[in-house]
Amino acid sequence: MKRTKLINNRIGAVVAAGAGVLGLLALTGCGAAETGASAGGSDKVTITVPSWVGAQANAEVAKALLEKEVGVKKVELKVMDEPIGWDALNNGKADVILEDWDGLPEKQKLYIDQKKSIVKGGDLGVTGHIGWFIPKYYADAHPEAKTFEGLNKLAKDFKTSESGDKGEFLGAAPSYTTYDEYLIKNHKLNFKIKETGNEAAQIKEIQQKYEKKQPFVTYWWEPQWLNNDIDLVEVKLPKFKEGCNEPKEKTECGYANTPLQKYLNADFAKDGGDAAEFLKNFKWSTEQQNEVAKYIAKDKMSGEEAAKKWIEDNKSTWQAWLPKK
Amino acid sequence: MSAAPTETPVLDKRDRITHSGSESPPAAPGFWARLAGNPKAVLLVAALLVAVIAALAGGSGIWPKDLTFDLRTPLTDLNEWLVDNRDTHPLFLYFLLHISNTAQSAVDSVVLGLENLGFIGVTVAAVLVAWAAGGAGLQRRALRTAGTALGAFGLIGLLGMWEPAMETVGLMVVCVVVAALVGVVLGMISGLSDRGERILRPVFDTMQVLPAFSYLLPFVLIFDVGTPSAFVTTVIYAAPPMARLTSLGLRGADAAALEASQSLGATYRQQLFTARLPLARKQMLLGLNQTIMMCLSMVVLASMIGAGGLGEEIYRSLSILDTGQSLTAGIAIVLIAIWLDRTTAVVGERLDDPAAATRRNRSWLPWAVVAAATAGATAVGTALGKLEWPDNWVVSISEPVNSVVDWIESELGSGIPVLGGTLTWASGFAEYVINPLRDALQATPWWALLLVAGVLAYAVGRWKAAVTAVLALGVIGGMGLWTRSMDTLSQVIAALAVTLLLGFAIGVLAGRVDRVERAIRPLLDTLQTIPQFVYLIPMVALFSGGRTAGVASAVLYALPAVVRITNQGIRQIDPAALEASRSLGASTGQQLRQVQLPLARPSLLLAVNQGVVLVLSMVVIAGMIGGGALGVDVVKGLAKGDLALGMTAGIAIVCLGVLLDRISQPGADVKKRGL
């Protein structure tokens, strides 16, 4: 009997705890809820980190410098892809996007022009370019493959078990800006996109094929640390003109050169003090970004170590970013 | 069992020779006769024939456009509405945001609490909680559990995973408490009311086959990326086992005990709290254990939607294919799982042990010791200024692991004489197994597949199962995702075939040879707790990205469950039946074919069912490493916040799950025999 009594007590305790939680909910439930973390102040800065390594390089270096040189207490890196990052910047859950590829014109209109919740933070200093690339050994052997029409005639060279009777096209990771699906459809190209799933898987596949000198054609971009290790040649697509990729289903043109942009939450930009000032000043070159990205992705350093190493070697670059006292 | 066949080898051989001659002829007609006597089987064969002929006759496998409905437009509208109104609409301000803020602050305060305890305080607390749960004192059980906890936490620190592990534990604590509460409430509803049971039972059943991956997206849009979405999805995922087992416990209560309490004049409430719930506590504890394990696996998956901690470590290493780092975090997860599992399991053991029960009247004492010692350890830690795990106490295993993986990749990738190498196998498997399967599925006319699915479900279940299966396929076609779903389905079937072949073989071996069972048991335990993401990374190195890599990780993920269930099925067979067959002179092979496998049939069917569910959940996650099809649509939907794309793919996955579950479910009769 004692046993049941004890269990009884324990259940009682659980019920009491449950009631406590409900009570807490009820208490807070009277009024309207807070809508998000309040941005602003330099105590805590949240940086969005999209899934590509170059962006991680930006974020790690910014974090290390903010914490060590600017005196921000805590810098949080939140892994989130571009579209979600924009939403987070809008509602103040994150303060800054360091590298935007201009892939979300609707969100830019909504948040920058209409709601005025996000403001531009200037150039990152790196120019991004997306395109279709083939390995140099293949381009040398088949010079006609350097245009998309010529490439299409050679489609059967690119056949794999994944693509069936069409050529295999290594596609972009899910969150990346791409019009390949529509380009292939609208030009009636004999290629099938293989969804590589994420950047690292795509890189691994490229490395494996490159080593065996197999032909491949891939969605690819600069800046990208792997470009230091392998030789790729761009395939010529129809020239980009402003607006040729709207609506995206009708896209027939290639990709633009995009000067990568920084964006800040509007409140943070206003009240963020030194931290906001520093992030607005943050600007480096493609080579510098690639260097840090390579530390992380190829040398498998942790983000902190990679940032530390770069900061030690490049004092003159980052000192220009520090707010003037 | 293993020693027996060697006793009379001569007799064995002789007997087999004489027997096989006289036995095999009746066996063949027996099969056809049995087939003819089973209308369901005839129906199934007929349906399959129709499908094959229709496919060969050049029927088109494409779902007709007229039969589709447009789900994308309303979903896109909803998506836009959510983004616009997320922080202004009353539904959010007065309800949903409260949930998310409460969850956020609860998790934050637990994590902060753990931080303030410091690593010494947390370790002491974990060890002593395990000790108290094990019955306290100097009993072996209590000391063993405490030792496990000490080892687990020490190793986590040594691996350099202390900080993320504390974040995960913080989220876990909140999720487990809420999931258990929700589970108990739902379990009481379905355990005490028949109508509740009728409504909730199918919901629990369906929840159990849903790949969690498929329903992350809507919660991201409602609760935004971060802890709250992770919290809500985890609670939804983890509450059903608690509810199910609570209900089972309440319904399974001994009628005599209830009668007794009623005759003593207990009111309904008194009866519930003094008799029914206490009698159900064993089941409830089992439910809690399962809920904890599911919470743990979900908080890792939820790193895709912003849950921090160990899951994020793993997710991030997936994006740079860092096998070593992901394995380190994966091991930390396994260690937490071991600690939680042993601590809760030992409470259950104690309930079974009458000797322990008598000692329990002073049970506040151990808990006081726990509190006091934790406070003391915290004070010491704070005084020493050592709250964080010291950096120089860390041993990195990620570099050696990575060099092993690199070696495997470069040595075994290709170019091995005769065998070819893993990359060659990968493209071979895709070309000769997955592609023909996919092409066959896509070439078969949609109505023929509906027919086969319906008949299959009818053959193993009842009309209801058949209707569900056909409807599930219909929804897939209706959403215009027929071709992509067939792609996913072909991967599932290929992975399932490999899983079952390997699983049954290993399971039977383990069931017959004790040494094998002992050897693989810890391996199975570990494989079952390693987070799904961890499986993906080395597969890319081995097989390059793509469907084969996905299938391989699905096989690895589902294998432990199949092996385990097969092994149990073989071992549960009445030894008398085996003994009888042996004394009749059956050889080892004959025993296996004619006694063990037929008698283990219910378990084997259960293994198939479990295998299907696990394989599907992994195949879709493999969209992240090039599996394509529905999986990558969900990933894209999550990455781009695109509800129309991700949600329709998610629904299609759910439909596939329900379909596969229904056509592989051991029928009611089999289940009964199995129990």
UniProtKB/TrEMBL annotation, chain A:
Name any one GO molecular function: transmembrane transporter activity
Q: What keywords would UniProt list here?
A: Signal
Q: Which CDD domains match?
A: PBP2_BCP_2
Ranges for domain ABC-type glycine betaine transport system substrate-binding come to: 43-312
Which InterPro entries does this entry report, sorted A to Z? ABC_Gly_betaine_transp_sub-bd (IPR007210)
Recorded source organism is Streptomyces piniterrae
Protein name, as recorded = Glycine/betaine ABC transporter substrate-binding protein
- Key word Cell inner membrane present in the record? no
Could you say which residues form the signal peptide? 1-32
Q: Where is it found, in Gene Ontology cellular component terms? A: ATP-binding cassette (ABC) transporter complex
Gene3D superfamilies xref list = Glycine betaine-binding periplasmic protein, domain 2, Periplasmic binding protein-like II
TrEMBL record, chain B:
Alphabetized Gene3D superfamilies for the sequence: MetI-like (1.10.3720.10)
| Gene Ontology cellular-component terms listed | ATP-binding cassette (ABC) transporter complex
TM ranges? 41-63, 117-138, 145-162, 168-192, 213-239, 291-311, 318-340, 364-384, 443-460, 466-483, 492-513, 611-631, 643-663
Name-wise, this protein is ABC transporter permease subunit
Q: Name one GO biological process term.
A: glycine betaine transport
Region annotation (Disordered) maps to: 1-26
The record's subcellular locations are: Cell membrane; Membrane
Q: Which family does it belong to?
A: Belongs to the binding-protein-dependent transport system permease family.
Q: Which CDD domains match?
A: TM_PBP2
